[in-house]
Write a structure and sequence with these properties.
By secondary structure, the chain is an alpha/beta fold. It folds into 3 domains: 4-45 and 66-83 and 215-295 and 431-492, 3-Layer(bba) Sandwich (FAD/NAD(P)-binding domain), CATH 3.50.50; 122-206, Guanine Nucleotide Dissociation Inhibitor, domain 1 (Orthogonal Bundle); 300-416. It contains 17 helices and 18 strands. It has helices at 15-26, 68-76, 120-126, 130-144, 148-152, 159-164, 170-184, 193-206, 217-229, 271-280, 286-294, 329-336, 351-354, 381-395, 397-400, 411-417, 467-492, and strands spanning 4-5, 8-11, 31-34, 46-49, 52-55, 95-100, 108-112, 233-235, 240-246, 249-255, 258-261, 264-267, 300-308, 317-322, 346-350, 364-372, 403-409, 454-456. The strands form 4 sheets. It has a 7-stranded mixed β-sheet with strand order 7-6-14-15-16-13-17, sandwiched between helices. Strands 8-3-2-12-18 form a 5-stranded parallel β-sheet, covered by helices on one side. Strand 4 and strand 5 (52-55) form a beta hairpin. It is globular, with a radius of gyration of 22 Å. The two termini are 29 Å apart. The structure holds flavin-adenine dinucleotide (FAD). Flavin-adenine dinucleotide binds next to helix 1, strand 13 and helix 17.
Length: 493
């Protein structure tokens, strides 16, 4: 195999790469999609094993209605296959929340329906006074109803700075500290208010926390099937080693399976691995290389997958946090320096709630996670796993006692599965680049890299919002850019 010619080569089958590849192929461009793993999906990969079907990492969709995947499926002509696993009208309680106020010893527990439509259960566990309830409603309403241009104007303001200017009761402040960790894998004192408010608006207005039958990997499977159906070439188990560049323009790739040529290369391997490793610094201006090196990676998420012998879980998502367990920058630094936290936040997905075939009859599978460093070599991960298990044992004994097997993963496994570590501390990112002030909105890296025909798709460039959604949005935008470039080239000939 080798020296084959395509219009476009796409690196990576995560939501960014797959959405770009499937759309470009459907529009008539001859595409090659190269994925180093045998399984498709990148970080949103799902596993089918021993009768179980689950995500390797805990995922929830935001927004549930109007997501970028809906747009991609529509253009591919497979809207009927875009089926979130719960309807907006589903009356069941979807969320179990455990919360401990800083001034209390015990956690309170509640369950609630979709997308905070009724704040009652939250107000109850937060133990609010009537004045605090009113203040919470005011801040939530301001966030939810904020016009788009006002949200954009908050690219340079951290969420903490935005909240500090308002009358925000402690329980709401702490919830948003937890939310920044759980939805963005970021601390509230660095995360751009424009990013977090966008996600809060989507949760409130379009639904949040959705899943798919078979897990998020189902989305990847449908996009890959359509890609091949329209004539695209898919190479799995093939690692891209180099992006070839001549006279300031891409010419193709060198892989473990040979060389392939194309005037356009779309990479979703991560902006830093793409520029610094696959292309090589020598092709870029020093200022651009320094800019790429200075971009801050997001935090990671550890995961533990619990395989249960009995169907004891009743809701789809479980969250657990206290005023003391979510991480701001200072707390994160302490954990990184070896101080094991007494409690951690937990975000957990019970696949069996969303999919009756997620586990063999009478069994269930739960995928749990908490924030941690994105450094694949981070040494604190084992202590965090231990703390996660201890919390499970203490607060969810009904789950712990019937757990027949557990699987563990952290930044090392995320990096091995998805992006290469090319800078110290980078590789295991949960989402991609940190969604912090200076790197979001108008400051987000451009998908159009300074080499003709090179585009960055996925979480690192060109879009905003929660992980999978923003990655697919970026893929949609890149498909347009690449199409314009190719059409421009053919006109010039
Ligand atoms: C623990 C965890 C929890 C998460 N929770 C959520 C959530 O609740 N909601 C949400 O929306 N998002 C969540 N995310 C984030 C989301 O999964 C990512 O942001 C998204 O998948 C990134 O998409 P991407 O296309 O940018 O890259 P990726 O998904 O990382 O895909 C990149 C692909 O490129 C391939 N690749 C890399 N280098 C090469 C190479 N040299 N040659 C060939 N192939 C290569 C990789 O193998 C990979 O398949 C979570 C992620 C993790 C890890």
């Amino acid at each position: 195999m080798g020296d084959e010619r395509y219009d476009v080569i796409v690196i990576g089958s995560g939501p960014g790469g797959l959405s770009a590849a499937a759309l470009l192929q459907k529009r008539g461009f001859d595409c090659l999609l190269v994925e180093k793993n045998e399984l498709l999906g990148g970080k949103m990969v799902s596993i089918e094993k021993d009768g179980y079907a689950y995500d390797l990492f805990p995922h929830g969709q935001v927004p549930m209605r109007g997501s970028a995947f809906e747009t991609v499926f529509e253009e591919l002509g497979v809207s009927d296959e875009f089926v979130p696993a719960i309807e907006p009208s589903d009356p069941r309680d979807i969320l179990t929340m455990l919360y401990r106020r800083g001034d209390k010893q015990e956690y309170s527990r509640t369950t609630q329906g979709q997308a905070m439509a009724d704040p009652g259960p939250f107000f109850k566990v937060w133990d609010l006074t009537p004045e605090e309830e009113e203040a919470v409603v005011n801040v939530m309403a301001e966030m939810t109803l904020m016009p788009e241009e006002q949200v954009h104007a908050l690219d340079d303001v951290t969420m903490k700075e935005w909240l500090d200017e308002r009358d925000v009761p402690g329980p709401l402040y702490n919830y948003l500290g937890f939310h920044a960790n759980a939805s963005l894998a970021e601390p509230i004192d660095l995360v751009a208010a424009s990013e977090q408010i966008t996600i809060m608006q989507q949760v409130m207005l379009q639904g949040g926390g959705g899943q798919y039958e078979g897990g998020f990997g189902t989305l990847a499977k449908v996009m890959a099937r359509e890609f091949e159906k329209h004539g695209g070439t898919l190479l799995t188990g093939c690692r891209v080693e180099r992006i070839s560049i001549e006279d300031g323009a891409v010419t193709g790739i060198k892989t473990s399976d040979g060389r392939f040529e194309a005037p356009v290369v779309v990479s979703s391997a991560g902006i830093q691995p793409t520029i610094l490793k696959l292309c090589g610094e020598q092709h870029f201006d020093k200022t651009y290389v320094n800019y790429i090196k200075g971009l801050v990676p997001g935090w990671a998420f550890t995961s533990i997958r619990y395989f249960l012998d009995e169907p004891v879980m009743e809701t789809g998502i479980y969250i657990m946090y206290s005023d003391d367990s979510w991480l701001d920058t200072a707390r994160f630094e302490r954990v990184k320096n070896g101080e094991t936290p007494e409690e951690v936040i937990l975000f957990m997905v019970n696949h069996s709630f969303f999919d009756e075939h997620a586990a063999p009859p009478g069994k269930q599978v739960l995928v749990s996670g908490t924030v941690c460093s994105s450094n694949p070599e981070a040494r604190e991960i084992e202590a965090i796993w231990k703390r996660m298990d201890e919390q499970m044992k203490e607060h969810f004994p009904e789950i712990w006692e019937i757990c027949e097997r557990r699987e563990y993963s952290g930044p090392k496994e995320i990096a091995a599965l998805t992006r290469d570590s090319v800078l110290p501390g980078q590789g295991g990112e949960c989402v991609g680049l940190a969604q912090i002030v200076g790197q979001c909105g108008k400051h987000k890296p451009d998908s159009n890299a300074p080499i003709n025909g090179l585009y960055i798709a996925g979480a690192d460039a060109g879009a905003k919002g929660m992980g999978t959604h923003q990655s697919a949005l970026s893929g949609i935008a890149v498909a347009k850019m690449a199409q314009r470039y190719l059409l421009g080239r053919s006109k010039m000939r």
